[in-house]
């Protein structure tokens, strides 16, 4: 797509000279937030794999593709709406819109097209429940988190975390056609993991958020309260992490491994609580990504090896 904007310098005729903004393929890929998408696709795939029932491999691929495209659409629309604060934050200033490589309208059109297409294909090709859940996921991320919560409350990540917790439920519904306890447990794991994950990042990026006027918890309540909340949510993850075993989704071997991972995560939270600098929050943020990946991978391995009741 090519858009025309006008530079501030005048042409020889005394009029603004047209300047072409021609975003490249890399810019459109950047709009999709590939790193975020990869985690969304993984958790969505786990939901598909763990759900009871059978789904034709082609439909499973279609469902996973729709989840990926829906996540990318949300990222693109998020970048369109947040272009003002992205421009003043160090970690986002080089995104296509604030960097001047893409017109905002192009990003919005791209995102809306992908959102509509992903929901329609999911609903028509897989099942209406999965399509409705995908629409809810996209709508929640854009309207509830991006447009409302992110700029209005330090609880933005707590409530807004639901958007990132929906994908395994969408995958589950793609197979089962409903929302059952197993899908809700997968949702709850990500929902409770999100605050300590993002607040660890916010602790060493608080200057960015302050400049952008985003009321992240460290900016509004301070570092001490943020560390306290990180610890509270990490402690809450301990019993939740073994819930798949308690409800019969996974074996005791999963529970032992998942509990061990949660204790390691708690160790990071305790180090953050006692630390003064940025080293501990950075380490916790990095481990948090590994933690979630490992928790979901353990459930996949448990079912694949026939260790739990699924066998």
From TrEMBL:
Subcellular location: Cell membrane
Topological category with respect to the lipid bilayer: Multi-pass membrane protein
Involved pathway(s): Porphyrin-containing compound metabolism; heme O biosynthesis; heme O from protoheme: step 1/1
Single GO MF descriptor: protoheme IX farnesyltransferase activity
Transmembrane segment boundaries: 36-52, 58-81, 107-126, 132-149, 156-175, 181-204, 230-247, 253-271, 283-301
Main localization of the protein described in the UniProt heading: membrane
Family annotation (Pfam families): UbiA
Keyword Membrane: yes
Superkingdom of origin: Bacteria
Keywords: Cell membrane, Heme biosynthesis, Membrane, Transferase, Transmembrane, Transmembrane helix
Reactions that this protein is recorded to catalyse: heme b + (2E,6E)-farnesyl diphosphate + H2O = Fe(II)-heme o + diphosphate
EC numbers, comma separated: 2.5.1.141
HAMAP family linked: CyoE_CtaB
Note: Carbon 2 of the heme B porphyrin ring is defined according to the Fischer nomenclature.
Annotated family: Belongs to the UbiA prenyltransferase family. Protoheme IX farnesyltransferase subfamily.
General function of this protein: Converts heme B (protoheme IX) to heme O by substitution of the vinyl group on carbon 2 of heme B porphyrin ring with a hydroxyethyl farnesyl side group.
Name the record gives this protein: Protoheme IX farnesyltransferase
Protein species of origin: Tistrella arctica
Lineage of producing organism: Bacteria, Pseudomonadati, Pseudomonadota, Alphaproteobacteria, Geminicoccales
């Amino acid at each position: 797509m090519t858009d025309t904007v006008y530079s501030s310098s005048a042409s020889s005729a005394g009029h603004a000279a047209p300047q072409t903004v021609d975003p490249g393929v890399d810019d459109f890929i950047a709009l999709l937030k590939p790193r975020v998408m990869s985690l969304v696709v993984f958790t969505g795939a786990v939901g598909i794999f763990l759900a009871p029932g059978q789904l034709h491999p082609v439909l499973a691929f279609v469902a996973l593709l729709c989840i990926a495209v829906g996540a990318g659409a949300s990222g693109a629309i998020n970048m369109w709406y947040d272009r003002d604060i992205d421009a003043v934050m160090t970690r986002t200033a080089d995104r296509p819109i604030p960097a001047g490589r893409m017109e905002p309208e192009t990003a919005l059109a791209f995102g809306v097209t992908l959102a509509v297409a992903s929901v329609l294909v999911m609903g028509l090709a897989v099942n209406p429940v999965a399509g409705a859940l995908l629409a809810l996921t996209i709508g929640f991320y854009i309207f509830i988190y991006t447009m409302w919560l992110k700029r209005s409350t330090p609880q933005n990540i707590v409530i807004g975390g639901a958007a990132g917790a929906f994908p395994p439920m969408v995958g589950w519904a793609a197979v089962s056609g409903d929302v059952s306890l197993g899908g809700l447990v997968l949702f709850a794991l990500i929902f409770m993991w999100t605050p300590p994950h993002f607040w660890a990042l916010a602790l060493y990026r608080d200057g960015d958020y302050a400049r952008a006027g985003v009321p992240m918890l460290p900016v509004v309540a301070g570092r001490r309260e943020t560390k306290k909340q990180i610890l509270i949510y990490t402690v809450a993850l301990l019993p939740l992490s073994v819930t798949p075993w308690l409800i019969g989704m996974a074996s005791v071997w999963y529970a032992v491994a998942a509990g061990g991972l949660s204790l390691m995560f708690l160790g990071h939270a305790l180090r953050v609580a006692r630390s003064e600098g940025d080293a501990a929050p950075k380490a916790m943020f990095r481990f948090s990504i590994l933690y979630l990946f490992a928790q979901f991978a353990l459930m996949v391995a448990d079912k694949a090896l026939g260790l739990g009741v699924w066998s």
